[in-house]
């Protein structure tokens, strides 16, 4: 079952954070009164029950929790856990979309075309796994950064949350279309091989030679199924690795260049600037404000007055 939202208005940001625990822990019982929640797990397993359904979340799993539902941890996590959490409101009630209703649009999505019946919607399932999580991490950190720093306009996070949910929806739909109808086993194998050998100084010619393909044919194959060239895919993987390291570690730029599989720091900085428009240091400084909570710091965040007025919600939260 999929939740579908019309993009007539931006979603309304409520609260967000990053949770981390290195001691045995389980989620406390909560009730969502009108607000939706997204949980993006980066380290698990995490055991959460929503209503009567039990979920096990591992790294890169996404859980969507609708309003007016009970949720709680049904089992203790004995390994360290880490996840992002984001609460938001929608001005228009969601509708439910069956998988079979969605399947008719997958062909257009897989070919990179607009699917006219759903391109004005955000569509998310209750649970799915993100194959490539780099962009999702960037978007959620941007939301946290803005939420925890002064902004003259209260609407900025509404639009950031909207963009984040569109990105989640795009990721889900692209994966769904590939999994159900248009998956190229050869391209999938090549992508996995590239990921496994990213530490090598890979060239398009070397990748093509490994799979006994002509380099030009390999590039055409990649463009057909991934909408990027082979070289663009290799460089994107390296840059996404660098982005995550910049956000989640205190490593120096030089160390990050090495850990991101670049031969030298200057080449890394040049490619990073070209792909992001920022230097690595500028990128890191752009996301310095975050809210991290843990088993000992679990703040209860009240609904902002201005949000309550805009939503016209008469509830106790």
From TrEMBL:
GO MF annotation, one: DNA-binding transcription factor activity
Pfam families cross-referenced by the UniProt entry: AraC_binding, HTH_18
Q: Which InterPro entries match?
A: AraC-bd, Homeodomain-like_sf, HTH-like, HTH_AraC, RmlC-like_jellyroll
* UniProt KW Transcription regulation keyword: yes
**PROSITE patterns listed in its UniProt record:** HTH_ARAC_FAMILY_2
**What superkingdom heads the lineage?**
Bacteria
Q: Which residues form the HTH araC/xylS-type domain?
A: 188-286
Q: Which UniProt keywords apply?
A: DNA-binding, Transcription, Transcription regulation
Name of the molecule in the record: HTH araC/xylS-type domain-containing protein
Please name the source species: Weizmannia acidilactici
